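During the reporting period the student researcher (J.K.) took over the structure-prediction task from the postdoctoral fellow and processed the backlog of single-chain submissions. One of the processed entries is reproduced below for the supervisory committee.
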Amino acid sequence: MNKKQLTHLEKRLMEERARVMKELGYYDESFNATLQSSDGDLSSYSFHMADQGTDAMEREKQFLFASQEGRYLWHVNEALRRLYGSPGKFGQCHQCSQEITFERLDALPHARLCITCKEKEEDGKRR
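J.K. obtained the following structure tokens:
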């Protein structure tokens, strides 16, 4: 992979990292918001059990989305470590050591596996 492609991938990874950090900041703000401020009531208690259930479900959804974004951030950070640690090896498949196509890395800059190895991995998970 040439220098121009590596620079492009670094830029893509940094953009993804910034986007995820912004998204996680949004979730952090919503987690820290009190029940009173989230529903606009003067009381911090819901009057109806259905409202309590809805509030709990919304918090659970936000937690799941935040944890998914957190895992994605981990993958992006690992890709940046690989890129900075050994730029000559960045873009090589971790299983077969073949070069991952630039098109795949452009679409998914944190990819560790080539298409063939990823398909094998997914087929193994289905069984």
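The committee noted the following: The two ends are 35 Å apart (CA to CA).
J.K. will present the remaining backlog at the next meeting.
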